[in-house]
């Protein structure tokens, strides 16, 4: 047995003592489900998968790894899109998955809070809130699989950010295992607390590089009593911004979602996904999808929508509109939006961007980026859709018809560069809601100032001086 | 001339070269306005007051002080209540006041953002937003004097936190001068940006100990079209919590303020402040004051309030209620609440607490703390009022009648200890909205875990390794 193998064996033994034999998963077949990477851009490898069942076990795992010189990749639901939970070292890296830490520790109805462990599935958190006649508003496509720990680690966005904010805004307190194995109990349920530095927000969105979030106190809201959706055909994307302005005044907080879809992604959905129907007899270059909800019994949401949209139509901001008559019609409208990512796969290769720009510059961004890319590779089909209310566009590009997908995908890095250069030039972000992970540290290096990267490095060194936590994520290597 | 005096003179010369002669204020008479401390608990001293007019000048001041071995106390409007802007060293400490950095750099109406420099008066920011038909919702008593830089440095709270959050929630980006004189331009106007660590929130609420905030991008909201207030008499404080629950469902976002007042502080206001009138013929042990606002033309707020309060009265949650008929009646109701701090001064010595507990435990806290203190010093008059919707009570104590104020005030530290012990035991905070400053580092040492204090020290050392920025604030000295 060589010395490295001995160290490896000792680490596994120590981990088994810590979390029990059922808490350590070895062997490529058993590890495989944890080593999937959704976008296929990384090939994960790990020495073992460890499944601690409580916070003290997470702390013990961290200490054991520190002593053995192993590094740790924390993982929750493994639904991330930037490789942040993909370990890269079969010899000296442990995948620490939190799925066994899946208890809802407390629901405090009067305080409008819920305390959940990191391994709770988001849908289960939503259900626990609903059982207490409350709403936990975080919602997005992967909600049946993603875990709350991953939501916090990546500061997940989703459909309802316009009204309720990103995950960060939905968290009051966190419990974190630090790089030295100490546990920071920051599980405060308070809405006002200025008794020290804001440590919580440093861990949220740090993708497991500064500490391992093991539990959180989440904010709850009154449960909506009613819901109304509308679809709108627009001749110009600028009209979406002007309309959003009117809607925010007319509908206030009831406006929870405002999604844009170009004609191209709508056509993809109509062509490939069952149950998607053409929204209007006339096709439009742009569509807006709105959702309003309210906890107030005095609200009459469809009437509010009709009045606002009628007036906007008279002002030529809206070409055509329809308020869903009932739940099933609303579902049919949202089906179009939710089908876009799947539909795009039938159109060949797709190069993806998760960007944001100021609301006032969305139209300019889409025009400018589309023009440059189509000039660079004629036939490229921009497929923009996303959370226009937050300035967040998934600016995806489908390949020209009849091109070999591989030939198109070979442009990935070049197109990313073109798009991100334009985004950053316009005061935008190259990583709006999916995070940085192992995918975008080169973008961090290219677009962030020397001062900002240095600040991030100093924080990393202060909280994880030995670099044990998720190395290679977020912070670019020194040149 | 002794060497120390020489160094001092050289620093002043260098500062004058940096910010111009009009930017350096010396001599006790001219410095006096900057060296006031509102609560009279600290006697401020400084070598000079420096008034930089732009960010690069702030950076140059920091570098000059670093070279001269002087430390820096940043100050904005100097309206803080915990001595965070009170310099303590007439030889080697510079007071850096930001009042000359008072430009509104940009208002982006479509993006619902405003960029303001740190020395802008809060009321001027509110006015600039209003001129663009927008709302900047931060609001509290000192708004005509406090500066936005201080609001951010202390993460100020105020009247509208229930709906709009603390200052932290109202900020998208910041510009910060670091301890080494570098400038971090984090002035992003984006609502979604996960491209790195959340540096912004580390500086917000750090009271000038990690960096000097020189400008910020602030979130704006639709301007309210209507407003309605109500006063409610309650027999039990528990009823306030149950009523708040109903109001949050029935009124949704329109509920912007929910303030509690005990009978004692209301009597103080009635007795001492002109224009305060008894709200009802019958006195009640507790009063709730509500404000609803809405940007929606379809809302009918007085009706919504009447319906909800009538139903609550039928369920015996509300003893008596009245919705203000017009603006002047609403003003009269709010006058009672706003007069309490001034009225308390007429009742002799007052020992103050700025605490928060979970909403579900407010009643328990007030009962428990009042009982202990009255037992300790019979005749002590608890004077609780504040932002019950946020769990934040200003639990002030007025002296027993006919006691020498000095005798009562000699109990300050002892009473703080009693109250804070109870608060922390109940999962609450000893510093809810006024911050820590130079006043409460001993509380940080007593109530925060070793792990948390160590985290704060590590962050301080990472961002201000030489300790040049606001020494003595927030972080307790090592034993």
TrEMBL record, chains A, B:
Q: Which InterPro entries match?
A: FAD-bd_oxidored_4_C, FAD-bd_PCMH, FAD-bd_PCMH-like_sf, FAD-bd_PCMH_sub1, FAD-bd_PCMH_sub2, FAD-linked_Oxase-like_C, FAD-oxidored/transferase_4, Oxid_FAD_bind_N
Give cofactor(s), names only.
Answer: FAD
The protein's superkingdom reads Bacteria
Has keyword Flavoprotein? yes
The yes or no answer to whether the keyword Flavoprotein is present is yes
Q: Name one GO biological process term.
A: respiratory electron transport chain
Which segments constitute the FAD-binding PCMH-type domain?
A: 42-223
Q: What's one GO MF term for it?
A: FAD binding
What Gene3D superfamilies does the database record attribute to this sequence? 3.30.465.10, 3.30.70.2190, 3.30.70.2740, Uridine Diphospho-n-acetylenolpyruvylglucosamine Reductase, domain 2, Vanillyl-alcohol Oxidase, Chain A, domain 4
* SUPFAM superfamilies, A to Z: FAD-binding/transporter-associated domain-like, FAD-linked oxidases, C-terminal domain
Similarity-based family? Belongs to the FAD-binding oxidoreductase/transferase type 4 family.
Name of the molecule in the record? FAD/FMN-containing dehydrogenase
Task: Please tell me the species this chain comes from.
Answer: Nitrococcus mobilis Nb-231
């Amino acid at each position: 047995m060589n010395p490295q193998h001995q160290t490896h064996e000792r680490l596994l033994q120590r981990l088994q003592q810590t979390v029990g034999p059922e808490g350590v998963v070895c062997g490529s077949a058993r590890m495989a489900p944890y080593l999937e990477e959704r976008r296929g851009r990384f090939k994960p490898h790990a020495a073992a998968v460890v499944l601690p069942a409580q916070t003290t076990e997470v702390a013990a795992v961290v200490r054991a790894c520190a002593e053995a010189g192993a590094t740790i990749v924390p993982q929750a639901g493994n639904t991330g899109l930037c490789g942040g939970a993909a370990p890269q070292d079969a010899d000296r890296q442990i995948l620490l998955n939190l799925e066994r830490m899946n208890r809802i520790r407390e629901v405090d109805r009067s305080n409008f809070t819920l305390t959940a462990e990191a391994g709770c599935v988001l849908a289960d958190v939503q259900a626990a809130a609903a059982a207490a006649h409350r709403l936990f508003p975080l919602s997005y496509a992967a909600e049946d699989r993603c875990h709350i720990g991953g939501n916090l680690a990546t500061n997940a966005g989703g459909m309802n950010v316009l009204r309720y904010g990103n995950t960060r805004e939905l968290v009051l307190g966190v419990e974190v295992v630090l790089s030295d194995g100490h546990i920071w109990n920051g599980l405060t349920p308070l809405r006002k607390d200025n008794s020290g530095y804001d440590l919580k927000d440093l861990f949220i969105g740090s993708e497991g590089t500064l500490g391992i979030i093991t539990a959180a106190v989440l904010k709850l809201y009154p449960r909506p009593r009613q819901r109304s959706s509308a679809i709108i055909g627009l001749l110009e994307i600028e009209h979406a911004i002007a309309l959003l302005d009117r809607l925010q005044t007319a509908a206030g907080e009831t406006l929870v979602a405002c999604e844009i879809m170009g004609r191209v992604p709508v056509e993809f959905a109509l062509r490939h996904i069952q149950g998607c129907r053409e929204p209007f007899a006339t096709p439009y270059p742009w569509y807006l999808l709105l959702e309003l909800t309210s906890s107030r019994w005095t609200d009459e949401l469809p009437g509010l929508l009709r009045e606002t949209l009628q007036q906007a139509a008279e002002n030529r901001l809206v070409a055509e509109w329809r308020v869903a008559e009932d739940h099933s019609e609303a579902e049919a409208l949202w089906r179009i939006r939710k089908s876009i990512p799947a539909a795009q796969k039938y159109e060949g290769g797709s190069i993806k961007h998760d960007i944001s720009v100021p609301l006032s510059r969305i139209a300019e961004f889409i025009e400018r980026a589309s023009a440059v890319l189509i000039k660079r590779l004629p036939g490229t089909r921009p497929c923009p859709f996303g959370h226009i209310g937050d300035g967040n566009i998934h600016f995806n590009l489908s390949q020209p018809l009849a091109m070999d997908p591989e030939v198109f995908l070979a442009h990935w890095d070049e197109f990313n560069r073109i798009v991100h250069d334009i985004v950053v030039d316009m005061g935008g972000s190259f990583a709006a809601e999916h995070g940085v992970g192992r995918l975008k540290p080169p973008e961090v290096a290219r677009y962030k100032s020397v001062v900002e990267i240095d600040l991030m490095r100093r924080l990393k060194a202060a909280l994880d001086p030995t670099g044990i936590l998720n190395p290679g994520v977020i912070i670019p290597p020194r040149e």
